[in-house]
Amino acid sequence: MSKLMIELTINGKKRKVETTPSTRLLDLIRDDLHLPGTKEGCGKGECGACTVIMNGELIASCLVLAPQADGAVITTIEGIGSGDHLDPIQEAFIETGAVQCGFCIPGMILAVKKLLEENLHPDQEEIKRGISGNLCRCTGYQKIFDAVRVAANRLSNRDNGRGEKDD
Q1: How far apart (Å, rounded) are the C-alpha atoms in residues 37 and 77?
Q2: What is the pTM assigned to this prediction?
């Protein structure tokens, strides 16, 4: 099979990667870039476990071919926090017990990140719509809703009144 070189920015770092025309973005992320937080659940774009943010939009990385990401800016779960400095959304998920088995959580957190970037004060229906592409079998969703509210409160309290975040 023929190989091709693509260039993308993933979690803030420019990368050149050799791939094939049929490689899924999910496999490129996990196998070639060694970012295991993006999970394969259904392989059909229905569960949200493989969710990443590409060019500002939530996508199911199992449905995108790697060459389609050439020139893209991608954020995976590894790009929003670290063991030393968790993102407020990650902290909220831990504190509210929304993590359970953890399999769906990377995609869920990225969906919440996108939601809160667009609407820092979502109501219950907006939260439901914001995470609707991500399935969870463990939590019953209430703890996830609680985590979204906690994260939204923290993030809105960090706003310094000028539409900018204090660091």
Answers
A1: 6
A2: 0.90
